[in-house]
Amino acid sequence: MAEVRKAQESSEWVEIRNSKIHQRGLFAKKDIPEGTRIIQYVGDKITKAESERRGVVHHEKGMIRGDGTVYIFTLNDRYDIDGDVPWNDARFANHSCDPNAHSDIFDHSIWLIADRDIEKNEEIVYDYNFDAASYKEHPCRCGSEKCLGYMVGAEYRSKLKKLLKTREKGKQAGHQKRKKQNAGGTA
Hints:
Elements: E1 14-18, E2 24-28, E3 37-41, E4 44-47, H1 48-65, E5 72-74, E6 79-82, E7 94-95, E8 101-106, E9 109-114, E10 123-126, H2 154-185
Parallel strand pairs: 7-10
Antiparallel strand pairs: 1-2, 2-10, 3-9, 4-6, 5-6, 8-9
């Protein structure tokens, strides 16, 4: 059950430009005060079952294109918004581990909201809040000092940090073991 919405008028706050993070991004056209509803995330309103189906299709197409982008956003327990439509400029907001905005739902509408004052020309970024279960599928290029290299929500970062540290120790131990074996084998 797809609900097609009319074209979104451009937000007075943002414009789409090339991004250092990922291809294109949203940038402030003017200073944006903290708490401002910057832009609404719009698209087709779909059921969870349709969301699963489309998510797989979008992911497969994205892997072929090399961008891996899926623009499906959770609306509530029954519905999601598929933002992969030409009139959804909000889909260009990139993830960052040090965001200046967040998403929130008001009256069955998804909005990006400024977490702090955002300066003109600054890229609008928010935490996609992906869980740690499939972190390898979501590499992060935000460049933040807080970045672990993967798009994982703030609540999952400490868990992922521990996991990555454990894996790194395991790799180092394996490297040391191979180094000893090689040294012993050449004597």
